[in-house]
Design goal:
It is a single chain. By secondary structure, the chain is of the alpha+beta class. The chain has helices at about 5-35, 50-55, 125-135, 145-150, 160-165, 165-175, 200-215, 215-225, and strands at about 40-45, 65-75, 80-95, 100-110, 120-125, 150-155, 180-185, 185-190. The chain has one domain. It is built from eight helices and eight strands. Strands 1-2-3-4-8-7-5-6 form an eight-stranded antiparallel sheet. The longest helix is centred in the first third of the chain and has 34 residues, at about 5-35.
C-alpha cells in the first residue's frame, strides 16, 4: 500500500495548523500592543458572555458555538468601549446527508451611549438592496443622493432616523470608512464581515463617537426626558 498520499495530506494539515497558530499569535501580539497604546485593557482568552451583554445586536446572535476573543476594553472619547474578534458556526447538509460546518469570524467595536437610543441600522448599500428597491422594498431615503447610494438605512421609527442622520452627520459619515452599524438601547456596534486590522478598530470607534457627538441637542433632551 502506498502511504505517500496520506503522509503528504497529513503534512499539509499540520502545516496549515502551524500557520494558523502563528497568525493567531501574531494577531494577539499586534492587538495587545494597539490596545496598550490607546489605554485599553486586553484579554486574549475566549469570552462567551458578549452576546448576553449586548442582547440587541443581531450580528452577535448568529449560528452557534459563539464566542469573542482578543477583547479590548476601556474608554474611548469618554465612552465605555469594547472591541473584539467574534467567531460563530453555521451548519448545512450536503447531498449525501452529511453535515458541514462553516466557521465565520469578524471584528466589532461597541461604544456605550449615555443617551437612551432607539433601533437604527446602517450598512453599505449592496446589489441586492438595489434589487429590493426595484420591487418597492425601499430603505429610508435622505436628501443626499451620495449618502443614499452609499448607505442602506433601516429603522422602525423614520423620524428617529432623520433626527440622528442630519446633514452634518451625513457629511461626517461620507468622510469616514464604511462599517455596518446598529443602535441598541444604550450602545452602538460597528463591524465588518471580516477581522479588522488594529487601526480599523480605532476608525470604527471614531465613527460611532462622531455620530453620537452629533446628536442634536433637542434630541438628547428628548431622550433624556428633559423635553
Amino acid at each position: 500500500m502506498d502511504y505517500l498520499p496520506f503522509i503528504l495530506f497529513a503534512a499539509v494539515v499540520v502545516a496549515a495548523l502551524l500557520i494558523g497558530v502563528c497568525f493567531s499569535a501574531k494577531r494577539r501580539k499586534e492587538l495587545a500592543a494597539w490596545a496598550q497604546a490607546h489605554g485599553l485593557g486586553f484579554s486574549a482568552g475566549r469570552e462567551e458572555d458578549i452576546e448576553y451583554r449586548y442582547p440587541n445586536f443581531q450580528c452577535l446572535h448568529q449560528g452557534d458555538n459563539r464566542y469573542a476573543c482578543n477583547v479590548m476594553q476601556g474608554r474611548w472619547h469618554e465612552r465605555e468601549c469594547a472591541a473584539f474578534d467574534y467567531r460563530y458556526e453555521t451548519h448545512s447538509t450536503d447531498g449525501r446527508g452529511g453535515q458541514q460546518t462553516e466557521v465565520h469570524e469578524f471584528s466589532a467595536v461597541v461604544l456605550a451611549s449615555p443617551v437612551p437610543l432607539k433601533p437604527l441600522s446602517i450598512r453599505h448599500e449592496g446589489f441586492f438592496d438595489k434589487v429590493a428597491e426595484f420591487f418597492g422594498l425601499d430603505d429610508i431615503e435622505f436628501e443626499s443622493a451620495e449618502f443614499n447610494r452609499r448607505f442602506h438605512v433601516k429603522s422602525p421609527d423614520k423620524k428617529w432616523a432623520f433626527d440622528v442622520i442630519h446633514q452634518r452627520t451625513m457629511e461626517f459619515m461620507l468622510s469616514m470608512p464604511d462599517f455596518s452599524l446598529q443602535f441598541g438601547a444604550d450602545a452602538v456596534i460597528a463591524w465588518r464581515n471580516r477581522k479588522l486590522k488594529p487601526a480599523e478598530f480605532g476608525q470604527a470607534a471614531d465613527l460611532i463617537a462622531g455620530i453620537l457627538d452629533r446628536l442634536p441637542e433637542y434630541l438628547v433632551k428628548q431622550q433624556m426626558g428633559q423635553a
